[in-house]
Amino acid sequence: MSNTALLERPTTPPRPNLRVVTDSDVAPVAQSPAAPSRGLPAGTAPRGFALYVGFDEVKAAASGVSLGTLVEALRRTLGELAPDAETYATVALAPASAGGRNVDVVRLALHEPAATARAKEVPEEIEDDATTGVVVDISRKRVLIDGSSAAFTFKEFELLQYLVLREGSTIERTELVSSLWSQGDLDAPGERTIDVHVRRLRAKLGRYEDIVRTVRGVGYRFDRHADVVIRYGHGTPSPDRF
Predict the structure, then answer these.
(1) Is the separation of the CB atoms in 228 and 136 below 8 Å?
(2) Fewer CB within a 10 Å sphere, N or C end of the chain?
(3) Which of 80-89, 115-124, 197-206, 225-234 has the lowest mean pLDDT?
(4) 242 vs 136: which has the higher pLDDT
């Protein structure tokens, strides 16, 4: 191992509910290196990727391997597929008593942006009834608008939460449907009728409706304003929960 990272404050995220990614889900490689990738911020280009692996030595030993063995095996595989790729491996350390999923402990220890953003908590001394603007309280699954609780349905809150956890990213309609409704669900909307759910969500946000933006021809995006507060708790789900 080339380095280690130490987690100082563990989180306790909920159980995962991951979905399988098939070859059809992966966007094809652009034919021209100059062609921009959809969804990337202007002026940016992919330079590599990070794979966060949650696996402790006890589980590794039970599988007849070690973390070092797994790292070297992954490096060999990458070397065969892409000989010119540069690699860097690091092991995340945490207190032995730390709870939560291993993969979330790793992401927080290595300062993965989405994980560290969720770890920031809003001071609880702020009184709800004195708060103006929008408070999206993910830990308590509620939305406060100018200090009053908004009457969101379970699915409306899930829709807003899905966008909030992916702040700044444009989410396609098809992803919203496939992630928030199970296959075969008779109540599942179509790719276009998801717009109806978003309209209802915006109506309940009132004068703050523009925090949920429409990206024409693609889908929707959550944009945080100065009058929007997100309360992350230890029970906040990871974006890969869905």
Answers:
(1) yes
(2) N
(3) 115-124
(4) 136
Question: What distances in angstroms separate CA 218 from CA 2, 13, 107, 176, 192, one per listed residue?
Answer: 41, 30, 29, 11, 11
Tell me the per-residue pLDDT of 101-112, one tens digit each, with 9 for 90 and over: 777 778 777 877
Sheet of 142-145: strand order equals: 148-149, 142-145, 134-137, 228-231
Contact 150, 143 (CB under 8 A): yes
Place of tokens 């100059």: 34
Residue 183 tokens read as 């296959």
The Cα 201–Cα 193 span in angstroms is 13
Task: Report which residue type is found at 43.
Answer: G
Given the structure tokens 């928030």, which residue do they identify?
A: 180
| CA triple 212-214-216, angle to 5 deg | 170
Residue 163 and residue 176: Cα distance in Å, rounded?
A: 9
Sequential DSSP letters for 196-231? HHHHHHHHHHGGGGGGEEEETTTEEEE---TTEEEE
Strand partners, 148: 145
CA distances from 9 to 5, 98, 105, 192 (A): 12, 8, 9, 42
184-198 per-position pLDDT tens digit:
666 677 777 788 889
Arithmetic mean of pLDDT over the chain: 75
Q: Which of 61, 92, 89, 58 is nearest to 74 (CA)?
A: 89
* Token reading at 225: 């304003």
3-state percent helix, strand, coil for the chain, nearest multiple of 5: 35, 10, 55
